Every structure is written in C-alpha cells, then in structure tokens.
Amino acid sequence: MSTSGNWLGRTGRLALILAGIAVIWALINHYGPSIGITTATEKILTMTCACLLLAITRYFLSISLNVKEIYYRRKARQDHNLPQEESRLAQTAQHHETLTRLFLAQRDNYGRFWPRKVQILLLTGSTADVELLVPGLTSQLWQEGNRTILLWGGEPSTSLDSDWFNALRALRRRPLDGIVWVTSALTHYAKTEGGEPYQPILPDTMDAIAQGFSNLYQRLGWRLPLYVWSLQSIKDNDADRVTQSVGCLLPAGCNPQELGVRLAELVPTLIERGIQQVSDRTQHLFLLKLADLLAHRSGFIAEPLSALINPYRPSPLAGVIFSPASFNTKRSVKHHWQKDKRWDVLIDSLCSLPTGLAAKKRGFVWGKMLRIIIAAAMLLWAVGMVLSFTVNRHAVINSSAQVKLAANTIHSVSERLHAQLDVQKILDSLQYRQLKGSPWYSRFGLSQNDTLLTALWPHYEASGLPLIRDAVALHLEENLNFLARLPVAASPRDQPLQAAYQQLKLYLMLAQPEKMDASWFAKTLLINWPQRKDLTDDIWQDIAPPLLDFYARNLPYHPQWRLATDEEWVNQVQTLLVRQMGLLNSENSLYQKMLAKVAQQYVDMNLADMTGDTDAARIFTTASSMTAVPGEFTRKAWNEAVKPAIEKMSSDRREEMDWVLGENKNTFLEQDSPEALQSRLRDRYFADFSASWLKFLNGLHWQQAKTFSDAIDQLTLIADVRQSPLVALMNTLRMQGKTGQSSAAISDSLVKSAKNLLNRDEQPAIDQQSGERGPLDATFGPLISLMDGKTGTQGNIPLNLKTFLTRVTQVRLKLQQVVNAADPQAMTQTLAQTVFQGKAIDLTETRDYGSLLAASLGREWNGFGQTMFVQPMEQAWQQVLTPAAESLNAQWRAVIVDDWNNKFGGRYPFKNTASEVSLPLLGSYLNGESGRITRFLQTRLNGVLHKEGSHWVQDRINAQGLTFNLAFLKAIDTLSYLSEIVFINGEAKIHFELRPATAKDIMQTDLIVDNQKLSYYNQLPNWKRFSWPGDTQAPGASLSWISTQAGTRQYADLQGAWGLIRLLDKAEVTPYQGVNSSFHLRWKTHDGWPLNYTLRTETGEGPLALLQLRNFVLPSKIFSIGATEEGS
C-alpha cells in the first residue's frame, strides 16, 4: 500500500505540531495586546482554543464519521432493524460511512489530491457474475489496487440505491471514470443445472437494463463510458494459463452492424493466440472456443447489445471485454484488489476515448462554458492590452510633440498658441477621463491617463502662463495705467468707468484664484481685448475663447499660477473707481439684498389670495408667464419689512463695496444725504411694485364660456356684489394701490370727503387739487377712481364699477328671459336682428359702456380693462350673434342665392355655354337702388353693413363678434361695381367708343355690334360711338378682315345679346398708357394677323367690366360661424 500521504513520519509530524504551536504563541504575544489579550491566563486560554480549533479542523472527517455511525446505529435500533443484542451481528456500514472510509484511505495512500491520481470504475451486474470477476466486491462495496478503484453498483435492471449514488456524486467532481456491466448471459456454451444451454437475453430484459443505465446517468449527472464484460462459461481454470485482455473497443456512434463487424474482426487474432496457447497446453481452450462463438454465433452477443446502442436511447458503449471467471484472485486484505492483464485494455482506453464516448456532464456544462468564457476573455484582454498600448503610446507621443512645439520660442506666437491649444485639448480630455473614466480601449491595466495628466501640468505652466496669463496681465495693466496716473482730485468723467471696473476685476481674478469666475472671465476679457498685437484678428477671435476659458477654469485648482501684483498700484486704481462708482454699486447692492431678504419672508400673492372665497376660477385665468405677484411687492411686505429696511439702510451711511473695489477700505459716501438715498430706494421699489402688479393683472384672461347658459352664469357671478370675484379683486387692488400713503394724506382725504358732503353744490366740475397723495397713485389712481366713482360721466351716466355691475345685471336678466322664452332661438334672432337693423339694445349699450370703462383706465391697464369690462359683454354678444348669423345665412340662401342659381346657373357669362343670362333679369338683382340684393342688405343688415361709395363696409362697433365671409364681401363689392357701370339707370346700357388701328398687311376690317358697323380701309382712323345693348331685333357681334394676301375672312360671328362680351373675351386687353379710360384691344387671327382697336369708355372699364362675371359664384354664406369657412 502506498504511503505517500505520510511522507513526514511520526517525528516530522511532531516537529510540525510543535512548530505550529510556537507560531501561534508568537502571534498571540505580538497581536494579543491590540485586541485585549494581555494577561498570561488570557494568552494560555487563547492558545488552548486555537489548538483545539485546529485539531477539530484536522480530524473533522474522522469525528464526523464516528458521529454518523453512532447516529445511524441508534436510528436502526429505534426502527427495530437490529435485534436487541446488536453486538452479536457484524455491523454493516452505511453508504456515506463507506465512502468516508474510502476517502480517508485514499488520502492516506495518495495524499490530499488523490482524486486526480486514481481511476474509479463502477461495476454493475448480478451479484454472482460480479463475484466471479472481482471476488468480495459486492460485500465490501469498494476495492482498490494499482491506482484503480472498483465500486459496486448493483444490478442495472433494478431500482437504484439513491443514497449510495447521491454519496457517490459527492466523492469528487466527476464521480466515475466508467461503468462496467459484468454479465455471464452472453455465452452460448453455458449450461444450466439441468444441462440445458442458457437462453439468450430477452429484449424486455435488455430494455430494462438500458433504462437502468439511463437512470444511472441521470442520477449521477454524468454520461459515462459503458463497457460490457462478458464472462464466458468455458472451463479453463488452469492457473498457469497466461491471462490477457480479450475484447474490442468501439468507436463513438457505433451501430449494431458495426458491432457485429468489430466482433468478427476478433476471430483471426483469437485463433492465432488460441493455437499458441493450445500448443503449450491443450487445456487452454478459452480463446479457440471464443473464436468459434464469435465466428458462428456472433449474433448471440451482438443482438442483445444492440439495445444499448439503439439510436432512440443510445448509451456510450465503449467496448466489449471477454474473459472466464477469475481464478484465485481473492485477497485476504479487505478492500484490496489485485489487477491482472484482463483489465489492461479497459483501463488504458479510459484516457484515450473519443469525444463522443468520453465522460461528459449532463445538461448545461457550466464548467466548460466558464472555461470558454475565460479563454475568450483572456483573448479579448490580450487584444485590448495591445490596443490600449497603442492608444496610450500615441497619446504620450502626441502630447510630447505638442508640448515641445508650445515651448519652442523659435516658432511664431501663432504657432505656439495653436500648439498650446492642442495641449489644452489633451488636458481637457485627460481631466474628463479622470472624472468620468477612460475609454474602454485605453484601459486594460495600461491606462496612462492620470500619469500623463500629472506630467503635462508643469509643461503647461512653463509654456502657457507666459503666453496667456502674462499677456492678459500686460494688456489690462496698459488699459488701467491711464486711470492710475490721474491725480486723486481729478474727475475722469470721460473714462468708461464700467469698462475700467471690469478690467480691474479681470486683473484681480488673475491674482486671486478663489475669486475666479471662468465663464464671465473668458467672455468679458474677449470683449475688452478684441485684438492682439502679435496675431491677426481672425486667429485671435478663433483661439482666444478656449485658451482663456481653460486657464480660468483650472486656475482655482492651481493656486501657484496666481499673478504677482503691485499692491500700491492696485490700491490707487481701486480708490479712483470707488470714488466714481461707489454710490451706484452700493445703492444697487443694498436694494437687491433687501429684496432678496424680504422675498424669503413673504409668499407670493396669487389670484385666489386676491379674490378671497369667491369662485374666481370660473371667470379668470392667469398667464403662464406670471401666475402670482411676488410677495415682496405687497402692502403687508412694505409696512412690515421693506419700509423699515429702507429707513435703516438710509440711516446707515456706510458704503458696501464688493471685493473688486476693496472690502476693508471703510469708504463713506460723500455729497449725498440719507433722505436722498431713501427717496431713490422708495421710488425704485414702487416702480417695481407697479410693474409687477401691472404685468400680473394685464396677464389675466377671461374664461371662455362653452354655452349660452355658461355665459349667463358668469354674468350672474360677477354682478353679485357679495360673491363677485371682480368686486373682491377690485377691493384688493384698491387696498394694494394705497400702499405707501402717509397718515397725513389719509386724514386729509377724510376731511375733504366731509367737506364735499356739506357743500355739494359748490363742488367744481374738475377738482384741480386732487393730485397724487401716494407713490402708487400714478398707476393705481384710475382704478381707485373707478371704484370711488370719480372717473367722470358719460352724459348723465357716471362711469364707475357700481353702474357697470347694474348694467351687467340688466343684461343678465334680459338673457335669462331669452333662455326661459317659449322659443329661445327666435327671441335671440330678434335681438340680433334689432342690432343688425341699426337699433340699440341693453346688451350693446352695456358693451359700449364696458369699452368706455376700459379706455378710462388708460393704456397701462389695457389688458386688465379688456378682460374685466369688455370681454364679458363681447362673449355674451357672441352667444346672441351665433344663432342670428346662422339664421341670416339661411335667409340669404333662400331669398337670393337659390333664386340666383336657378335663374343664372349654367348661363353665360357665369358659364361658357350657348345659353345667355337675361339682362333685364340680371338688372333686377344688380340695380343699385331697387335691386333685390341691395334691398336685402339695406333692410336686414343695415346696422352692421353699410355702403360707402361702391363698397360695402362692416360697422366696426355693431359688427363686433361677427365674422363676415370674405368671399361674400368681395362678391357684393363686384356686383355693386357692375351696377354702377352697366345698370346705372336701372336698365343695362353702356356707351363707349371704338377706334380701329393699322396693322401690317391688313387692308380692311369690319366690326359690327348690334347692327352698329365700323369699317376701316387703312385710312386715317376715327372714333365711333357704340351703345350696348343696341336697339335691334338681331343682337350680336362680328369681326372680319381683308388682307393683302386673301379676300374677306371672318374672325368671329357671335349672336345674342352678350355677343360683344363674348368677342371682348377673345381679345388681348392692355390698359392704354397714361389714360385710365382707354384700353388697347387686339384680336389675333389663326394666321397670326393682329386686328387692333382702341376702346374708350365713359365709366370705369365699360363693357370690359362684365368680364368679371366669368365663372362668378354668389357665396351662400354671409357670416363665417366657428372656424373660418370658405365662401361658396
């Protein structure tokens, strides 16, 4: 037995134990005091516990084995599996105990890594067959010899011992190297006790065996190579016979036919070796008999084994081994197995099995996948390292080149600054990567980001500061030197003080890194330094922003870059600027700080706060840009915080200078009294107060009502004094508008009111003494006057809020009567038509009154006045107009449009057809005095539409809320224009003159209009007067000509009353230059000859005006309802 696990021996073990105890004692003495082990007793106790812990760890398996034996023995006694006198029976070890003993034995033999040094085979089959091959295995459960362990696995066709195989899985990662099925059923020579030969294995039996192997693989979790060991019942028990391996190894995926071929291939070898053995001794017949069996009855072996390589349930059959029963191989030493040469082929093949037969873990092989992943990761990591090396090397080389170029004074300033810009880009990139992480392709353990960044900063300081910081300082010093050279008593009013202040601030930022504001610095410096002497303007404007911004951003992190300044010179510049700018800076600073402090103490005042418990959301909405008035601009804030703060700031005359002008100079304002400062701060505050309230109030919008009833409900709400959001808002505005009024002004107002009550008859029409008594009177005065009824009068009606609410109530009652009427739509139309006819009603009068109220507030309150006083009435009027407009559209269609289309539709000139419109009938519609269209407009739209000259114009007041159809207005303007030209006396009659003109190769032209003929023989042309339509029974127009190349030819012969208009439609008409009443007419023949005439009219375009009726369509709608509608 190997003793490799005990290489130290007893002496070595003792020495190792003593050395370990000494090391533990030394550690306790060295580290014990730091964890509270100080006394000798504590050290000894700790030492004892440590040794005990190590001993338990070392002998844990042995202790665990003994504990488990005791436990299972007691459990067996409780389950009555053992008799009372247990000691009389040989104790059978449990499976886990057996494998634990196996583990301990192999560790002693081969060391702690024994699983890698041995091969483990599982033998299955009947107990008798296995005992013939390996005597004692079935009772001992395992045997070991020559680094091979044999385990007993039971019969394959029976149910598996779950405990045994579960314990096997825990033995090592791959529990087995192979499975051997030992069987004596694959022999044809065996005889039963009755003398009958053995019957071949039945298919059902082989199926059960194959299923057993499949279950075994599933239980173990591994697919293991399977060997079939066929014990041949051939009497050859001579101990002197030479043992040898007899069998064949099979390839992966072997089928039954190939199995038979492989078995047949053994026959020649068996015969050769069998003859040799028989020659030595005639009793050695095993090989020859086996050869005979394989040669003549190989199917007796191959057919049963075909069940194991069935394609539907294949087993990894790796080989078939033949041998007789073992002879004299049982050993007296327990668990020891003596290997002979019969096992050589099987054991040697375990290391060289093809891939398809090698042991393989079932299911997803995490280990293999992990190895592939690790290998791929290593490959990717290697590629990444190469890529990272290349990237980092390029970065280092590029940075080095740019640094050298920026530092080389041989090159021009432009080249150095461009190189410096490249260095800054590299530094920017390195800084970003330092914060956010380097790109993946530059990492892989080779990233030089931080190292390169650290190395570049000194180079930037050496080359960048002279080019950037020193140049900036020199420029600022030159600009400030003029101011510094001025005497203290001088008054440099022409000096741009704001620019000087900015330049000083820029200069001090270079000297005080903690004050640096990078964005302001770069932007302001570029404005103050648009040109650099040693660079062209375009280059400087291109590279300056990034250069300055980078320096400014990094200066606070590198204080050593600060600029050394001349303190005396800086103090001189500060003193001069303080004297000139101190007042303005301190006043603005005080005001802004005061507002910021007050804003934190008072919440903003929104619309709900201004209207109290009223339902303001039903009628008002605020603008999205300003939903509330800032809390610092309220009367409460003024009285409690702002006013005391201003008084305190005014009494404290100390100047609050910023750091640029010197915080510790204790400069006092001169030539300015506290009263003047207080007055300026008050005026500024109340100006902002007024602006905030105006912006909020002018941003209010009237909530649009969706229905007529909603509009009435809104009017009801605003007219109810107790619940009106308008009244509540106006009361709030009156209170806020009196912010800042002194108590004397209030008492004077009360005295004056009492006098007015006693002397009403002596009151002047306009009170000239009613001036401003408060800082907000200029803004809120008109509004307060409206509340107090002091705005003025319209006739005998006063302009005030109370009168407006009374009128709104009257309108609301009138509209409710409309809603409650038997026919609300008819009553609504009656109201609207009353206005259309030019008569006034309560609604329009109240609307006009609201417009007057809004106008009385002034332009500053325009948005507020429109929302409060105009839009409510406009909305109500719109609700009345909508059904009335629809009704008028219907009347227009029924009275005018439908008849028009019936009488004129499809006729010339409205359509280019042979059928013509009757001129008298057309005149009945277009007559300017009594035409049907004119009468309709004058009787039904007189209040909203009137005629100015030849145009119809909508009334700007009464037509508010109405949207006229633009196509309708255009159409009636066209018809009105035609009526003044064609139907001026009621009947169609036009007088005009024609004069022929010469044309090349034209000898004669003849023009006939309603039997009125004009002939031209190429002589001096004369004017001829025509009347249209003519008094003739055969109306029409014709045109003919005679050329030098042909006789008389006809251009056109158009019969009918509209013949002239048809002929004019074919002519090219151009206005006569310089004469508004003349037109040049040209008819072009099909041969290209021009026939020229000049037309002179008495009114307008004369007969040419009728050409406007071509394709004319009379719109069917007067008003556009809702969205914009096209006229039809």
TrEMBL record:
Task: Give the source's domain of life in one word.
Answer: Bacteria
Which Pfam families did the record assign?
IcmF-related (PF06761), IcmF_C (PF06744), IcmF_helical (PF21070)
Domain Type VI secretion system component TssM1 helical: from-to ranges:
883-988
Report whether tRNA processing shows up as a keyword of the record.
Answer: no
What keywords tag this UniProt record?
Answer: Membrane, Transmembrane, Transmembrane helix
Keyword match Transmembrane: yes
The regions listed as transmembrane in this protein's record are 12-32, 44-67, 370-391
* IcmF-related domain span: 429-736
The Type VI secretion system IcmF C-terminal domain extends over 992-1098
PANTHER family in the record: INNER MEMBRANE PROTEIN-RELATED, TYPE VI SECRETION SYSTEM COMPONENT TSSM1
Q: What is this protein called?
A: ImcF-related family protein
Organism encoding this protein = Rouxiella sp. WC2420
